[in-house]
Every structure is written in structure tokens, then in C-alpha cells.
Amino acid sequence: MFSKERYQKYLCTTILGREFNYYPQTNSTSEDAWQYAQEGSSHGSLFLTDKQTAGRGRRQNKWVSTPGKSLTFSFILHSELELEKMGLLPLLTGISIVKGITAATAIQTGLKWPNDIMLNGKKMGGILIESKHHSNRLGVVVGVGLNINENAQDIPHALKGNATSLAMFSGQNHSREQILSAILNEFETLYDNQIDSIISLWTDHCIHQDSEVSFHSEEGKQQGIFQGISSLGHAKIQINGKTQTFPSGMVIL
């Protein structure tokens, strides 16, 4: 069971994660966050569960987590970012996760555009960010799922070749409480003070910068060289010698 006391011991934020809502089991922490947001929530409120039964990923995919071993959480932002900069939030979240994991475990993970956390060439986590207008302001829910202490038997058969966990990589279990607090510490610092550094920081942790990738967009599947991120967080990909910018899509390595 997740220890609130241990989590709070490592938490250094001013606001983010200070309001802590824990559920032994729930359908989706993002659904919980949105319900709470509609009732008038605090900026930075955190929702965490040890067992998520209907987690969601991007493109209507299901996010599978392992009870008591995964980190599955969401938090609310009352964002004051300009609308055109909202594309930076998945990048900022990814940086926070990578830096937080390193701070807590000394393990280096990487980022795959737009929202995958990668370890040793396999996916160990993902990000889902949703925004809605309510009460005349923009509300944002940041949802995160991370494989922390799963073993090989915990990974669904269909994902075994593509998914991993920190424990599978390192051969030892890690403190979910310390990792979560480290991620939130990094996020608050970046969000409050370093939003203009997000592009360069994300590029530093990208595992496919200047590499050939397959890219799935609304126009179909294409091959190209990943050249980085625009100032709005969009992917820049060189296709047939011409650089094109994509606000959404999925990179396949």
C-alpha cells in the first residue's frame, strides 16, 4: 500500500501534490480529478490509486497498471499558460518524470514524442493530458502511468516485447513514494520558473533526435528524420528533404 507519510517526507513543493487524494481502487484517477474539478478544486490537487481498473491512454487505448506496483496518478492545473503553449505541457511532464526518476533512483530514462517514457528501448510509462473550459477558466488534468516494480509476469503477453519497468531494468524494487514526490518537485520548478527552457530540456532527453523514424499522423504513415520540437511543442520531421511540422501524431522507432 502506498505510504502517504513517506511520500510527504520527500515532497518539497509549495502547492503541487500538497492536497493528496488516495483511493485504494478506482476506475481512473483522471476521471476522479475531473469530477473534483467540477466541484471547485484546488490548483495542484493530486489523485493517486493503488489499483486502477479503467485507465486510459492516448487514442482511446487502455492503460494497464499492476496493483501495488505501478504509479498511477493525476493532478489538476488551473493553467495560466497561453493556449498556444499548451502543447508544451506533455513535454514538461515528460522532463519532470525523467528528471524525477533519476533523482530518486539514479536510473536514466528517455523520452519519445509526444508522451512516452522509455527505458532501454522499451516503454515504461505514458502521459495523458486533457483540458476543458469550466467556470470561465481553463482546467487541465495531467494523467501519468509508470511501471515501477512490475516483474516480467506482470506485463501483459501482448506487450512483453515493448514494455518494461524500473524493477525489470535494475533488478530491484524502488520506492514509489520517493519517485512520485521527486517528479512533482521537478514539475513545479519547471512549470513556475523554466517554461521557456522546455524545448531544449526535452531535446536533451529525446531518444530519437536526428534519427529516422516512422510517423503516424492524420495523413497516414510516413518515414522521416526527427529534427526536434517547434516553439509550440510540435514535432519537426524531415520528409523527402522537406521539414514538416506536426501538432499531433505518433513516432514509431
Features:
alpha+beta, BirA Bifunctional Protein, domain 2, SH3 type barrels, seven-stranded mixed beta sheet, 6 helices
Textual characterization of the structure:
- This protein is of the alpha+beta class.
- It folds into two domains: 4-205, Bira Bifunctional Protein, Domain 2 (BirA Bifunctional Protein, domain 2, 2-Layer Sandwich), CATH 3.30.930.10; 212-252, SH3 type barrels, CATH 2.30.30.
- It has helices at 4-10, 29-38, 89-105, 166-170, 176-193, 198-205; strands at 20-23, 46-49, 70-78, 110-112, 116-119, 122-134, 137-147, 212-217, 220-229, 235-239, 242-246, 250-252.
- The strands form two sheets. Strands 1-2-3-7-6-5-4 form a seven-stranded mixed β-sheet, with helices on both faces. Strands 11-10-9-8-12 form a five-stranded antiparallel β-sheet, with no helix packed on it.
- β9 and β10 (235-239) form a beta hairpin.
- α3 (89-105) crosses α6 (198-205).
Helix/strand structural class: alpha+beta
Radius of gyration, in Å, reads: 17 Å
Number of helical elements? 6
- Uncertain runs with pLDDT below 50, 5 residues or more? none
Biggest sheet: strand arrangement: 1-2-3-7-6-5-4
Number of strands: 12
Q: What is the distance, rounded to the nearest whole angstrom, between the alpha carbons of the first and last residues?
A: 36 Å
SSE order, as H and E? Answer: HEHEEHEEEEHHHEEEEE
Beta-strand residue fraction = 25-35%
Specify the CATH architecture of the largest domain: 2-Layer Sandwich
Instruction: Calculate the mean pLDDT score and round it.
Output: 91
**Share in helix:** 25-40%
CATH topology of the largest domain: BirA Bifunctional Protein, domain 2
Inertia-based shape = globular
Task: Name the CATH superfamily classification of the largest domain.
Answer: Bira Bifunctional Protein, Domain 2
- How many domains make up the coordinates? 2
**In CATH, what is the class of the largest domain?**
Alpha Beta
Largest sheet: 7 strands, mixed
In quaternary terms, these chains amount to: single chain
